[in-house]
Amino acid sequence: MQFVLDQLGSPLRVTPPEPLSVEAFWQVSAENPNLRLERESNGDLIVMTPTSRDTSFRNSEINFELALWARQDGRGYAFESNAGYLLPDGSILSPDASWISSNRWKPNSGEGYTTILAPDFVIELRSKSDRLPPLQQKMQTWITNGVQLAWLIDPERKTVEIYRPNQPHPDIQEGHTAVYGESPVGGFILELSRIWQ
What we know:
six-stranded mixed sheet; globular; alpha+beta; 3 helices
């Protein structure tokens, strides 16, 4: 399969000659296990580049805190950045961290790659190479497809943009030392001091 590169940079957008079906996306992903890929609703591929050590450290901190809270809370399951979600609009996205209520998903449920499921909660972390407008658009895509709460954490600006359904603009917290979960992840607190390092 041959592709056309739309732009160089991070992330890299690849436009196939014909829109890539969901099945073809999973096939391309399986044939290229070293690539982290996403699929936009129009069938374009997004190729994510490896992260810097700073970003990897921050991602680890976020995932550790969310997984620890999820285990202690017991109402759902935390996922790291390799989880791919097939969303109602046909896009397949992978957030940096996510959480799903145990009412909606259980381990070993047999749900495969073709099951449409949006997480209840997502966190995206901006790296130095990420342009802000595409990330903000991705946050809106999450919300449009059924995510109940989404955080965009930007260490460079020391901000957290909080996205919710039926809210035209995100709430922006600047310079806070923690961000507090709300429904569906009420009780989750993400300390930001190590993220802002």
